[in-house]
Design a protein that fits this description.
41% helix; 2 domains; 3-stranded antiparallel sheet; 420 residues; RNA-binding; BirA Bifunctional Protein, domain 2
Length: 420
Amino acid sequence: MLDLKLIRENPDLIKEKLKARNMKIEPVDSIIKLDLKRREFISEVEKLKGLRNNVSAEIAKIKKEGLNADEKIADMKKVSDNIKELDEKLADAENEIDNFLRDIPNLPDNSVPLGKTSDDNVQFRIWGEKASGDFKYLDHVELGKKLDILDFGIGAKISGSGFPFYRGKGAILERALINFMLDTHKSNGYTEVLMPFLVNRTSMEAAEKVPKFEEDMYRTEPDDLFAIPTAEVPIVNIHRDEIMDAKHLPVKYCGYTACFRREAGSYGKDTKGFLRVHQFNKVELINFCLPEDSYAQMEEMLNHACGILEMLNIHYRIVNVCTGDMGFAANKQYDIEVWSPAENKWLEASSVSNCTDFQSRRAMIRFKRDKKTEYVHILNGSGLATSRLYVSLIESNQTPEGKIIVPKSLQKYTNFEIID
RNA sequence: GGAGAGGUGGGUGAGUGGCUCAAACCAACGGUUUGCUAAACCGUCAUAGGGGGUUAACCUCUAUCGAGGGUUCGAAUCCCUCCCUCUCCGCCA
């Protein structure tokens, strides 16, 4: 959620930033008009409430003396009716403003490249080299079938397409990746958490996922709970409605969850195997920090995510995500993409975002300094999602015979060196 | 699922219609005292929004006692609905 005061005082800046994100700018003027109305209602109704409070105190005094206060009571009845009417108008204005605000994304930082789609993202760093064996690389679906470690048909039978199923060493490899990532992040100073996979509406709203993206979520009908699209949602909500101790910032969490996404509207795109799924596993990093630290924390978080890939010897690149492709709550975003030798393309495996105070304002996550309350900055980063990483890992490490060599750093987690 | 109890500021906890515009204590912070520590004493001690202001300190108003409605001139307090927590019973991994 953007700061209403910022919109009121810098409408031109807001419009410029929204244009950069290919958003309509009309809501800005609507909000400013509504805000003007809102503040008129507030001063009017508060004046009346002040009057009522004073006269009610007088009535109490008069009654104590045993005198008659009927006239004042009658007057105040009218005032109270008036207040009720004005309160309703005020609430309407506030709701209208909020409806606009819920549709407006975070403003992009100046370092974010301008653009419309992922084609306009700018490569920022690249590490490692493409697997270049002198044989035809099998894709992960073929490998999975040949080695009997992945079975998308079974997943579809149980749940539907896009629900992966792992077997034997395939399942162990997945579990090994998760444990390896969690242990590594723990040693980098993150507190590990294990959390609910279903969250209530308030938590989804605080993380700015709902109502804007409600169509993309799995939702349980009788209880109005949402299957989390990312661990970011429960972790951000740990500190909802809290004033954090500034001495303890930055506060860093890592946690594993399954992630659920309906991917409504993207049917027919990247449908093969793991490339686009409804359920996947992810280890998430979240950082609550001082506003002035957030960009430095972002670089650090990026390095923590990349560190995993380097230890696994996976060829990756980082792109600076452009204004048109950034996430709703992000002020700046890096995507980490891993190389798939069989698809011959880059696959997004992580996204590191600085959400500045956008979520913390909605979620009321603050800290205090010099007697003033300020919003913390919140960053999230995948560290990382396993599905596409899995693709890159098994494809890149395959032998000409179609076996998979487990990277050294993972072997103590898998307790085997080869999948054959 | 059934029965009961309860939700008050960072914590404990008083408060059943009007000097409660939430007592007291603890924690925290600032200060005095002190050779140092401790103790004692004094002070500060919510959040959000509006208005004023030398737009900073500050002043002022309004709202907030789980959430939302209602009754009333006036609600932490009375009524209704919902949510949550605890205890017991049932079921169950």
